[in-house]
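Technical annex B. To support the medicinal chemistry partners, we prepared a structural model of the target in complex with adenosine-5'-diphosphate, based solely on the information shown next.
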Amino acid sequence: MNILVINAGSSSIKYKMIEMERQEVLAKGSVERIGINGSVIAHTPAGRSKVTIEKTISNHKDAIQEVLLALTDSAHGIISGMDEISAVGHRVVHGAELFSDSVIIDDKVINAIKDCSELAPLHNPANLMGINACRSIMPNVPMVAVFDTAFHQTMKRHAYLYGLSYEAYTKYRVRRYGFHGTSHKYVANRYAQITGKDIEDLKIITCHLGNGSSLAAVNGGKSVDTTMGFTPLEGIVMGTRSGDIDPAIVPYLMEKMKMSLEEAINYLNKDCGVYGLSGVSSDFRDIQLAKKQGNERAAAALEVFCYRMRKFIGSYAAAMSGVDAIIFTAGIGENDHLIREWSLEGLEFLGARIDKAANDNIRGIEKRISSADSAVDIWCIPTDEELAIAKETYALCF
Ligand code: ADP
């Protein structure tokens, strides 16, 4: 049985076809520059080389048609017809308080996703374009929406309310939602599975460190707190996002830097974080290299990042009255051993001790990296959001 996973953005669609019995990726790819000059489809069948097709693609429906053509192509396709797609799983960014789990998509769900669009104006409408395109081309194939926010809906009000007027929450839906939920849920459950432990008994801190980064406190398999908030701008310092700042900085800098509100939001999302601090790059590989070469700003950026990591790990251990496991995942979490090491420095008092030799030698594999005398289990677990979406889709449809 094959499940197609779709992640639709405003001008791009990423896809993966997953065979569920063996949980194997049959093909993956993307359509970029939809509705923009120079659209391109990149399709990679498993174990074979990438095929790139340049073609004018004016909308999401055409883009999905191209994905299906690539998947069924006689030369580089992996299925012989559309009837070999049993279901489609769609990534949807915002489900607000309307969705605490994945759902089978129907007209009611589409309207509810629309209703959440004001909370994620860049993402939800784009996700909907992908859903509508698939529904019109494959009307009889079941489709599921998997929300980035859903996993965090178990947070209690003490964790999700801001210290604003209560009306900001009741009238305008301003609260902590959290994101990366599919990934936090996946690695927390994967940890329980690998170690043969019952997730119900575990206090886990999951650290999803990629271009966007967030931590979550997962108690008994449920998210009880997370660092991203009303938007993915809150929390730890990220590649180009500021993370937590004093809100009064915004009007102050708007005046000093002569920025409009839109420019200020753009600045906080795109010009800050380790990129803004280092002046080098948002990519940790470049910043690590610059630090090695003596770049002080690069060193400062990494120090700020790791200090924030330590503070959040400590506060989540306090939030859960303990911690059994800390998990690192995503681009930085899976690959940067120095970030893992520095983020845990000084946390020995919590019982978290890293095994430097074990930590140094790994990249992108599932592995325990805590020392034998560590009371807290520390692991690297590569995330697999597409597989998680495919599994949720399978569970709901079959
Ligand atoms: P996204 O949030 O876009 O899914 P990823 O999880 O793929 O991002 O993470 C991308 C980031 O991971 C890069 O910007 C880079 O900072 C970091 N990264 C990837 N590989 C390495 C590596 N080998 N060493 C250090 N950092 C890495």
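Notes passed to the chemistry partners:
Residues 210-212, 239, 282-285, 330-332, 335-336 surround adenosine-5'-diphosphate (CB under 6 Å).
The chain has two domains: 2-147, 197-380.
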